[in-house]
Write a structure and sequence with these properties.
The protein has about 160 residues and is of the alpha+beta class. About 25% of the residues lie in helices and about 30% in strands. Strands 5, 6, 7, 8 and 9 form a 5-stranded antiparallel beta sheet that branches.
Amino acid sequence: MTQQEQPRVMVKQAVVRERGWRQDDVMVSEVKALARRGCTFYRASNPARIDQQPVQYAVLPDGQVARAPTEVLRRFGDGASADWWAQVITRLGGARGTLVDEHAPSAIRKIHEAGAEWAPTLRRSATGVSLAFYTVDYELGGILHVQASLPAQGDLTVTAQKLA
């Protein structure tokens, strides 16, 4: 197994353990745009189970497969953009839906009509990091305003409120 294949195999093994999917049914793809300082991100799906959402993972430089966002954000978020933080929180932090980006003009229009800006905003302070962004939740049928907070000590908290 090559060094490039190893993280995919570890992610596949993790999803087999966690979801009970057959290993031959699991497809793993890397989300290259999120890679940061040796931390890589992967999406695992099972085409035989179209009713189940893909599972998102981070593989840390030491080979650990992670699904919890707090450690990933603490270790790799320093200096990262608000968009990177929002992507990680959307994938690993339990924020529902798909992150609103420049490819979602109807969502952006609705956010602007509500008097807000759609781009993620990140604030760092001595007490921690806070982030605000929007997602589209197709199951819920709406746009969510997501707020996340990572205090200097403790775990990430994520709340979401449907855009009126």
